Each structure stands twice: as C-alpha cells, then as structure tokens.
Amino acid sequence: METKLPPGVDDAAIAAFRRDGAVALRGAFELPWIEELREAVEADKADPGPMVRRNTPEGEAGDFFVDFQLWQRWSACRRFVEESPAARIAAAMLGARRIAFYHDHLLVKEPGTAAPTPWHHDQPYYPIDGDMIGSIWLPLDPVPAAASVEYIAGSHRWGRRFRPRYFNVAQTALVADDGFEDLPDFDAERDRHEFLSWDLEPGDCIFFHALTVHGAPGNLSPVRRRRAWATRWLGEDARYAARPGRVSPPLEGHGLEPGDAMVSEMFPLIWSADAA
Ligand SMILES: O=C(O)CCC(=O)C(=O)O
Predict the structure, then answer these.
(1) Domain 11-272, what fold?
(2) Which residue's C-alpha comes closest to atom 8 of ligand 1?
C-alpha cells in the first residue's frame, strides 16, 4: 500500500477507525471541493434524480431531503469521486489495495426539520458481502455535534445484522422475513454504549464502516442548514451478494452475479495501489 497518507489521515485516525468503526478526519478536503459540491446539491434539489425521497411528512415543518447517484448527473460530484482524495482516504482506512466507488447519498436537513435519521447500519441495505466497505460522510455546512450523526463505538464488530428500514416516518422494512434482528431502541441503551459525534467544519469528514450503527437527530436550528453528502467505497474483498428482498439504493442493470467482485461500469475502480 502507498506510504504517503492522504490529507486528514494519520496512523492514529486509522487505528481509531478500526477500533471504533468511525472517525472524524479534519481538513481532509480543500474548500473548493466543498464549494463546488454545494452548487451541485442546490442543482439537485431543484432538479432531483429518479430515486429522490422526501422523508418529512406532508404538512410538517422542515425538509429531510434524500437523493442518490448525484455523481451520475452533476460534474462536480463525478469529479469529486474520480479526482478528490476520497478514494485514497478509503484505501488507507480500509487497508485496501483497490478501491471501487459504490454509490452516493445526499442527506439534507433544512432548518426546522424535526425528523431524525433512525438508528441503523448500512450493510444490510446493500447486496454486498465483505468487510472493506466504508463511507465518507461529508458535511457541506458547519455541523455542531448536537445536530450531527452519532455512531456507536465498536458496533461494526458486534457480528449483528439489523433489519434495514426506510428513513420515512413509518420506517417501513425493506424486507419482511430475512434473518435480520429487530433494531433495539439504542436511545434506551445509552448507558450501555459509547456514542461518538463531532463538531464538524466544511472540509472535515467522518469515515465509518458499513456495519457501524449510527443515527442522527433532526435539525432544529431555525437558520442553519445541514447538507451532507455521503459517498460509499469498496475495497477488494467486497463481493456482490443476492439478497432476499429490496435493497437500497435499488441500483439495477449492473450485470453482476453473486460472488463477483463489486467492480463494473456502475461501480468503477477509482484507485489501485498498483497504479499509485
Ligand atoms: O446524514 C444523516 O442524517 C445520516 C447519514 C447516514 O445514515 C449515512 O450516511 O449512512
């Protein structure tokens, strides 16, 4: 693996990620990246993609706006995926020799949005087996810890799989009978776990494992937006896996068979130690 670490990453951050399943990386992205992405997010909000979801109930204040695959529609997002330090960050954190891009996920909570992001972990939503699966959660606004995502330290190593549910008010399950566990009420278990969250500035990000349990409060600020763009990254042990029910996001037409490496036109290889 490459010896020079990408911006925001040092050995302590890598150790913290492997122990806790989530870590804040400071100053990982230069501000021009953030400025370009903000413009793309505004464009997407005005003209969303086909998988857009509005998780705020009709008539309720605020707006919890979710969309996917901005990288396929907005050049700033594609450039971030292909050219920013993101793939190198993922490689360093996951200990991977190859990094492919899985998908992106926009999560905007406008001022006055009460809706929380329910507790969940990501891998049960994905038709993917493997351990080298992680996300960069990139805030595009300053986010105080009280409005940011919270992670349960070490939950990526519990060996548990919780049933995936949509983030809507009904929290509809993606699959009915599947061998997943029901999600405990982690708010009622606060004295039993260590919860991690950070004050973040634009340019900072959180890197987290796809099995780390996380959730977020609403954004009750009357003025401050909470725009975040998450990108999902895969190392070489990630394999396409058939799942019994729906997956999210529902990416179709990739042509992969169970057991195939998660690399294709839809999931492009972005970084390889051999080419670095
Ligand atoms: O931004 C949020 O509220 C939640 C983010 C999240 O669940 C994710 O990136 O997987």
Answers:
(1) Jelly Rolls (2.60.120)
(2) 230
